Each structure stands twice: as structure tokens, then as C-alpha cells.
Amino acid sequence: MKKKVKPIVFSKETLFPNSDFRVVEEKDQPVVAFHKHNFGEIVFIISGSGVHITEEDEYPLKPGDIFVIDGEQAHGFTKLKNLHLINIVYCHDKFNALREEFNGLPGFNVLFDLEPTLRKSHGFKSKLHLNSSQINEITALLKLLEKEYNNKLPWNKMAAESIFKMIVIKICRDYCHLDAPKTDILFKIERSLNFMKHNFVNPITLRQLAKEADMSIPVYRRIFKEITGLPPINFLLRLRIGEAARLLVEENIKVNEAAIKAGFNNQSYFVRTFKKVFGTTPKNYAKGKDNLKN
Question: What pLDDT does 2 receive?
């Protein structure tokens, strides 16, 4: 059901201005209007029921459901009946900084990137769902995170971040054991994504990627684009360009060095591709970032 209502916009600066993340618990969740926000959100349904509204459709909620909402995804909650949920809301910048630590964690790409993209075609059937024992375990961790976040003891931020990481690892592990429709396809694509992320500085062929996913090349190409929005080789180029941009700014190296370290053998092709993605040359990009630092 396509929603035509213009979403309300919530901002991190208003809700949690001085924190990278926080825990929000609603023991009797009120109806939430269609909205979007500039932060991410992991939603844990503890008990009760309701309906989750997105721009594409409506999905029933039940105890044990866990799903990720990117800030750009407008959504809301309606038809609620004693809905008890706990959210972890997090700053995108902080979460993206942590992504490197989760690189290679089975289930991570599926839960945070692939499943949200496929909700429209999968009808939310690939979401993570926990049993009652698992709900109790995750609720205990969420309560501990909230307690650590709110206390004023030394190193509380580091302790809270460690608990947050534990929660992410746990739900990714749980996802790996999920028996739900379409998840096998998501995990196959994830294997190829992890292969890209660990090997993008080296030559990679479409045949290698399809083999990692245990698919034929035509099927792999079609499904990969359906899930990520990009053909596999274009996605690989984005990884390389992103690494080159990081090297230019963080390591302050020359353009040709950044190109080679990011997996490009042809510098002119690298410059053209970089400009297509960022709208400027690598040299000007690095200069612009230096000016922002100063």
C-alpha cells in the first residue's frame, strides 16, 4: 500500500544531541505518525502486536521481531495492542566508523544492508525473529546498555559501546541460524560481498564472485542488482573508489599511490571513475577535505 502522506522528520540533534546512540523503551507504544529521521534504528519487539507502515506496504509485528530502519526509510506504527518495543537509535557517522570492526561478521551485511533493501519484494519475510529465550537474552543486554548509557561512572561511553557491539554480534549470529524464506539467497550474496571487501585491491572477476555465491553468472548478476541496486562490478568499483577517497584524506598520499592501493591499475580510468562518483577530481577532493580540517 503506497503511502502518500508526507513524513514528519525527526533529527538526532533534537532527540540525542550529545550521544552516538541511546536506548528508547516504550512499554505501551502509542501510534507513531509516518516519519523519517537522520539516524539509524534497531527495533526490538518484546511483546504485544501492531502494524509497521512503510512507503511500500504494511507488515504485522509480533514478539521477537527485530529489524533495522535506515533514517531515509519513512515508516510508522499503527493498529497497536500493548506493543512493548525497545529501540537502539544510533548516529550514522559513529555506526559507519564501527563497520570496519564488523567486516566479515556473518549476517551483518544481511541484517543491516540487504534485508532492508529487499523488504518490498520479500514482504518482510526475511526479517530476524527470535524465540522467547532469545528475547529474554537480548532484553537483558538492552537493559544493561541503557543502564551503562545513563550512569556517570568512568569510561561509561566505552562500556556502552562494548555492550552495543555485543548486541550487534548476537543478533547477527541469531540471524545466521534463522530459517526464513529467502535468507539463503541473502547469505549467498553476503559471501560475495565479504569476498569483495577483503580482496578488492586485487583483480576480481564476475566468475569469482558468482562462485562465492554458488550461483551461475547470469543468476548472480540479476539477484545482486536486485538486492544492492548496482551490478556486481559497479559495486566493486564503488568499494575501490571509497577506499581511494579514504586514503587521500586519512593517509595524505599522492593520487597515483591511492589509485594503486585501492586496486586501480590505470590512473586515467581511476580519475574518470572518481569524478563520476564524487563530482570532482581526486586531487581537488583531497584539497577540499584538507581545507575542512583546517
Answer: 47
Same domain, 90 and 212: no
Quickly count: other Cβ atoms within 10 Å of residue 178's Cβ. Answer: 17
Tell me the average pLDDT across 68-93. 90
pLDDT at 144: 95
List, in sequence order, the alpha helices (H) in the chain.
12-15, 92-98, 108-109, 115-122, 132-150, 156-176, 183-199, 206-212, 217-228, 232-246, 255-261, 267-278, 282-293
Query: How many CA atoms does the CB half-sphere of 178 hold within 13 Å?
Result: 30
* Burial profile 54-87: b = 16 or more Cβ within 10 angstroms, e = fewer: bbbeebebebbbbbbbbbebbbbbeebeebbbbb
Residue 253 has φ and ψ, to the nearest 5°, of -105, 170
Total structural domains within the chain? 2
In a domain, 283, yes or no: yes
Listed residues 155, 176, 197: the one ending a domain = 176
pLDDT one-digit tens code per residue, 6-51: 888 888 888 888 888 889 999 998 888 889 999 999 999 999 999 9
* Euclidean distance between CA atoms 150 and 29, whole angstroms: 22
Residue 189 to residue 213: CA distance in whole angstroms: 6
Containing domain of residue 293, as a range? 182-294
**pLDDT (tens digit, 9 = 90+) per residue, 179-226?**
766 788 888 999 999 999 999 999 999 999 999 999 999 999 999 998
Same domain? For 115 and 202 the reply is: no
Residues 150 and 192 in one domain: no
2 domain residue, yes or no = no
